[in-house]
Every structure is written in C-alpha cells, then in structure tokens.
Design a protein that fits this description.
- InterPro entries: TPR-like_helical_dom_sf (IPR011990), TPR_rpt (IPR019734), Ycf3 (IPR050498).
- With about 625 residues, the protein is of the alpha+beta class.
- The protein is about 55% helix and about 15% strand.
- The chain has 27 helices and 10 strands.
- Strand 2 and strand 3 form a beta hairpin.
- Helix 2 packs antiparallel against helix 3, helix 5 packs antiparallel against helix 6 and helix 14 packs antiparallel against helix 15.
- The longest helix has 14 residues.
Length: about 625
Amino acid sequence: MKPMVNRFVIALALSSGMSTVFGQSNDAADKALTQLTEGNFKQAKTLATAAMSANPYGSLAYAIHGRALAAENDLAGAQTYLEKAIKMSPNNGVYYAFEGANLKNQHQDAAAGKAYDKALKLLAAPASALEYYARGSVYEAQKKEEAALVDYTKALELNPRFALCYIKRGRIYENRKQADAALTEYSKAIGINPAYASPYFLRGNIYYEQQQYDAAITDFSKAVELDPKDVDALFNRGVMYKKKGNYDQALADYAKVLTITPNDASVYGNRGNVYLMQDKASLAFSDYTQAIKLDPNKASYRVSRGNIYQRWEQVDSAFNEYNRAIALDPQYADAYLERGNIYLNKQQYEPALADFNKVIAIDPHSSNGYLNRGVVHHDKQQYAEAIDDYTKAIEADPKNMLAYLNRADAYEATGNNKLANADRKKYADLGGKLSATAANTRKEIYPKGTFDPKLAEAALGRGLSKIVGRACTKKDGLIFSAAGVKVVLLPVTPYLEEWYELREKKEGKNTSVFMSKEANQYAITAISGSDGRFAFEGLKPGKYFIQLIHSFNQRKTARIYTGSDSWQNGPVREITNYYYDQDYLVARSQRLEKFVEIKEDGETKKITLANGLIKTCDF
C-alpha cells in the first residue's frame, strides 16, 4: 500500500514596501508597512487599524489591513479593505496587484486577471521596493518566473529586509528544482524575522523532500510554536513522525489537526495509514471510511480501504474498491497495482499483465510495477522477460528486496546458479531472511527465452499432410513395441530449439531440462497401437518434434541355487548342486524422439522411433 500523499500548503505571501510611495501615510502606517514587509502580519494589522483611526482617508493603511487579513485567510474581509484602498487611490498599481492575488485565492480568475492587467499598466516604471515586489507577484501569477525573479531581486536591492521577497524567490527556485537555492532564501527570511512562521514551514517541506526528516520536524515544530493553530505544519509534522516510525507522535499531531479542522479528509486518510502500520486494521478501516464520506472522489481512500478488505480476505469487496478508484482516477497507478495482484493470485495472467502494464505506463519508474509484471512472466515460466522486469525493478529501487529474491529464483531456473547466489546475498544484505533448506540434489532448469503461443498455434494449423510411424525399443537383443504409449507432436519454434539445445548441454544425472507449461499445451497427442504404430493427420508443411517415453517391463530369468548333495566315490568326494529357473521383471524406460520436416502439403512422412537401427520396427 502506498502512503497517503502528503499535503504541503503554501502560506500566502504578502507584499511590502516603503509607505512614502503613497504620499498619504502617517507614522503608524509606516510602521505597519515595515511589519508587513518582514512578515509580522498581526502587528501590521494592529498598526494599520491605528493608522486608519488617525487618518480615515489614508489608503495605505486600508491596503495593509486588507493584506494582513488575507494572511489570516479572511479573504472576504481582505477584499473589502482592498476595494476601499483602490477607491481612495484608483491609480495605485500596488493595490490592484494585492487585489488580484486576493481574487485568485478566491478562485475568481477572470476578475483577478483584470486586476493584474490594471496593476501592470500602473506599474510600468516601478520606483520603490514595494512596487517592484507587487509587479513581480503579478509576473509570477502569470507564470513569467524570470521577470518576477528580476523584480524581486531589485526590490531586495532597495530594501534588504524585505523578507517576503526572499519567500517569493525561494518558491521560484523550488519550482525550478533548485532546492539548495530555495533553502538559502528561506533561511535569509528567517534571519530577518525569526518569528515569521512561513519560511520554517517552507524550509521544512524541502527537508522532507530531501529525506532529512529530523530537520523537517524541527522546522515544522517551530512553525507550530509560532502559530499553534497552523494545521498544515501540524499535519506535515505528523507525516514526518510517520516516516520515522514515531507512530504515537504522528497520531497526536493528527488528533490536534482534527480539533481545529474536524472535517479534513486527508487527516483521516493519513491517520488510517498509521493505524494500519500498527496492525490496528479496524481503526484504519474506520478512518478510511470517514475519509471517503468527507471526500468521496478521492481514489486513494478507496484503494486504502480495499487493502483492508484484502487483509480480511474479503477479495470481492477489495476488487470493487479498486474498480471504484480507477473510475474516479484512471491515472491512479496504485489502484491498478492492487487490482493486478488480485488477478495474479487467481492466476488470471492476462488481466494481471494488463494492469501492471498500465502501472508502468503511468509511472515508468514504478519498482513494484516491474516487480509484479516480472512475477506474471515468472509464473508463466517466461524467465528472460521475468529477469528483465526484476532488473528494471531494482534499477528503479535498488532496495527492493523481493526483486533480488525473485530474480535469484529466475536465474536458478535457467541454470545460472552464480548469479542466483549473488542475488540471494544481496537480499540478505538488505535485511531479508533466508531459511536453511534441505539440499535439492536434482535441479530442474528451463529455457531463458519466451515461448510465442501465436507462432506455435499458427504452426499447428490445418493441412493435408500426415506423419505415420512406429516406435520400438531394443534391449538385450530383444525388440519391444511401444504399445499403448502417448506420442506427442510439437511444432518446432525458437523456444523449442533453445530447450533442445539446453537439454543437450545441461541434462545429466542431476539435472533435468523442461519446457514451460504453456509450451507443452501447444501439442498434438496420439496413442500408439499394440504394435507401436501411430499417426498424426491434417498437418501443414513445417518442422515438428515427436517424442514418447516408452516404459515397459522386461521379463528376465535367473537361476536360483536350492542346495547340494555330496557322497564318497572311492577315494573321490563328489558334490551335486541343485538349481531352478525363476522369471522376474525389470522396469525399463526409454525416451524416443525425432525431428520431422514436411516440405509439401499433402505429403506423408513415415518414421521409426527407436533406440538404434531396428529393421523389424520399420513402419
């Protein structure tokens, strides 16, 4: 089961600048603007309220108050104050930039676009850090990252303590996968204002992506310390605790989130995962069910609940959950993976293969997708394809223990014991446990190649030719007809040729070489008569391999000693020994086989299957 996707909510970044740009501010407004610049939103709102009381017509105070409300996610209240600021100063591009961001956060994209267009016209020639910041935020919203980065950098040149610009630049670097540069930006923002929660949260997210879980927990904890109701920091810290196996601490964080946002489906989903890791399946099931109730369109919750059904061996219910998940999200790989496992367990190989192929199509780096597809090929004794898939699983995840173990079995099945032993050692090195077993003195190996059923089926198509023959075995000068024996005809394919060549090289006292079960299914069988005669009719031109195992009992006679008499004949002592003849049976088994080629349709081939030249056995 794949862990629930973590949510990482980015705190709303606000703008700041120098109040002297507006020409209608007071000391309280200047101070409010400074606090806003450095990320102290509560102080900025308090000072802006004081500024509005001192000067009811100062537009800057209304704009700052609106942006502070936006930081608290009071978007409707923020809109009211921003509209007042614009009404007082209709030619101020910064206010329109603020309004555009607020409207976008309310998903009013059309209105936001108009506000942004107005802002760009009015900010054609920025003159302050705030104006560069405001224009940069518009460029960023329009996905013009390079232009935004230039403006944020210019704003920082004019005001090096503009913490929000560092946040904005950090986000752009993060989008560009430049994690180290983003970390530097967030750390600079913290250096300016250690009481600013947002950069701790954002830096914690990067530490998580880098699997630096302790560092991430430290940053999320600091964000929670600064804002105890920061549900996103609490949630993400819970995810980190889960990653580290600190399940009780993870549960405590999820519980705190639910006291603040009791209808958050993602919390129930993640908490269900923790319960499952603690083998508390009933509690996990309850949480997954609640998550589905709150968010019925989330495919992952269906898969998670399906996994519980699987654990309880309620396979039909699990199958239904996976089908619902796929209907909700046709690109959700885990649903196909789990449904494919059900097909695989039922030996329904074709639908299983289709599901695992879908997993790999969605996620070409899915280690488990390749692993499970390899199992399908393995079960079908298609060892070359199985080994190839296990290798791809290992390339995608070098710590996938099962891929090493399964590949070892596949190598062993094809006679490559050296590679098999190397893979088993790697499995053990990764923590896998290998139990001692009894030595198998006789090995069974298979061709590495893949059998092509379509090729075999085509070769067995209907024709006008036939093969007739007789089978005999010669032992101790006696001729034994193969009476009532099953005779098998197989089409000669590359797979059969590989098998035959492997058998010629490897078969011996301790080694048997077999074809796959599937390959053996594409055969025609006949039963020989009392004189060993058999026939195959309706064949088309092509090359065939005919084989039978002639098992019979050979009657032999042994002279059994029963005793003796002795007497004295003058000076000579004479002895007479007594014997009788006893018949006994000796079990014999002889493999008889031959390659036969039909060149023309309508041709009749006559063959003899025997262990040498037996003239009386000719057809």
